[in-house]
Design a protein that fits this description.
Chains A, B: May play a role in DNA repair. It seems to be involved in an RecBC-independent recombinational process of DNA repair. It may act with RecF and RecO. Two copies of one chain form a homodimer. Chain A is 44% helix and 12% strand. By secondary structure, the first copy, chain A, is of the alpha/beta class. The first copy, chain A, starts with 5 loop residues before the first helix and ends in a 5-residue tail after the last helix.
């Protein structure tokens, strides 16, 4: 039986290493690559290498950055008294798209998860504590881990750890999404919405 | 608002150029790339460049190949009296996986499509006719374009063109898939199955 030519087989193999891409999709993508403009393919290859080579985690907040410290940590106009703690770099971008938060961030790169065997020492908590010790400007830690059980566990762990230092610890509100129908909301979300109701 | 660091933004842009990959998936893939082994990323970049640089269409059959002519056209043990005509290189691999066809191939790189404005001169037909003129070893052309309306149109066009030269032209059988239920088959497939019924 004839096999795919080696360069094509290797490209298919590379595509299958991406999440959610199986043999069929990888083959389709590889053939598509052959039909792409030469420039686009060259830029694709360059951007793969450059992303891997030029991006690092900020030594202060752990967010992905080209320069260390990252532009957010360096920005004197931002409110350095607030640190918002997120699970991953993508969450920083989600918060920034909101345009309404002007404090700093801290990226945990994971959550405490007994099921996955991830303990507090496996995520970026030590550097958060170091930050708080070094910098007494910080007045509030806003915990923005996801509303999953692991996210809640991590939030609880952090609160217990930080509160004794006299720093205010808050958690993002849970409740109905804006525009959501009550009869489509799940029980946990409804429970959180009732629990966190506000006076009008 | 903070933007993604440039190397990451460029990588996301490259991923969005692939078919079926939007902004969200591209972002997910780009972040995943950052977490990949350095070697895997380097190999990915290399295979992109190599696939684009080292692969060409065989000057005889049009199939994708590293060497020209391709291994199938060069293979003296294959039956050079049969040419199976397909729409795209992927179809050659599908036929080869069957292990039962030992003739040659011809890849059209498309079909005649009045809707898309693709005429006979836009696909790899001229080189097929040249092949037939030069090589009187060919006894049969098996047309294996898809069973779509464009595929049927192309098949009809080729048959009309080749038959006068005294070469046998055949078409792959259409009918029920092996293992298919009759009550789930569409009308056209059932019609083709009845039309092409064989004596037992």
């Amino acid at each position: 039986m004839i096999q795919y030519p080696e360069p094509l087989a290797k490209l298919i193999e590379s595509y299958t290493k991406l999440p959610g891409i199986g043999q069929k999709t990888a083959t389709r993508l590889a053939f598509y690559t052959l039909s792409m403009q030469e420039d686009d393919v060259t830029n694709f290859a360059k951007s793969l290498l450059s992303a891997k080579r030029d991006l690092h985690n900020c030594s202060i907040c752990g967010n992905i950055t080209e320069d260390d410290p990252c532009p957010i940590c360096r920005d004197k106009t931002r409110d350095h008294s607030q640190i918002l703690v997120v699970e991953q770099s993508q969450d920083v971008m989600a918060m920034e798209r909101m345009h309404e938060y002007h404090g700093l961030y801290h990226v945990l790169h994971g959550v405490i998860s007994p099921v996955a065997g991830t303990g507090p020492e496996d995520i970026n908590i030590t550097s958060l504590l170091k930050r708080l010790k070094k910098d007494d400007e910080v007045k509030e830690i806003i915990i923005a881990t996801n509303a999953s059980s692991d996210g809640e566990l991590t939030a609880g762990y952090l609160a217990k750890l930080i509160k004794p230092a006299g720093i205010k610890v808050t958690r993002l509100a849970h409740g109905l999404s804006v525009g959501a129908d009550i009869d489509y909301a799940d029980e946990m979300t409804l429970f959180k919405a009732v629990q966190g109701r506000t006076e009008m």
